[in-house]
Amino acid sequence: MSSLRIAAYITAYQDATALNACVQSLQDQSLEGIYILDNSPQPLPLPPSIVPLTPHYQPHNIGLGEGIALGIDWAIQEGYQLLWLFDQDSQATPQCLQQLVAVYLQLMTAKIQPGIIAPTALSGHPPEPVLAAIHDRYRFIG
């Protein structure tokens, strides 16, 4: 794919089944590590993984923002160049990272430094794209 060192970050909370599915979706994505922030009152069992897992247990639920900050600090300390962010109930499609990195490299070649590159989010049964929305006080409006 490329010579970039890439890791993933997952925020987890009280759902071992979802965490396992998320980790399994990342197994063939050319990642070198996965940082898991477990905000559960009791630690979740770590799923089997061929990619090294780095768990960080925070039973007082530090939330997403502080968790991502810890993940970014970890990624920088470990020398990763890109960090792919996940919530436990997200799953990557088989070629997702390869496609995201291809877009990233095209932008960098064009001297455009992106802050965030994201795939189309799908939700529901059958899965449908999550469309753009406006956040108005406490809710999203399509």
Short description:
By secondary structure, the chain is an alpha/beta fold. It is 27% helix and 24% strand.
Explain what this protein looks like in three dimensions.
- The chain is α/β, with parallel strands linked by helices.
- The chain has helices at 16-25, 63-77, 96-109, and strands spanning 6-12, 33-38, 53-57, 82-87, 122-123, 128-129, 134-136, 139-141.
- A 4-stranded parallel beta sheet has the order 3-2-1-4, with helices on both faces.
- A hairpin with a 4-residue loop joins strand 5 and strand 6.
Keywords:
142 residues, alpha/beta, four-stranded parallel beta sheet, two-stranded antiparallel sheet, 8 strands, globular
The Rg value, from CA coordinates, equals 16 Å
**Quaternary class:** single chain
Largest sheet: 4 strands, parallel
Q: Alpha-carbon distance between the termini?
A: 36 Å
Uncertain residue segments: none
Q: Structural class of the secondary structure composition?
A: alpha/beta
Mean pLDDT metric: 91
Strand content: 15-25%
Global shape: globular
Q: What is the helix/strand order? A: EHEEHEHEEEE
- Biggest sheet strand line-up: 3-2-1-4
Q: How many individual helices?
A: 3
Number of strands: 8
Helix content: 25-40%
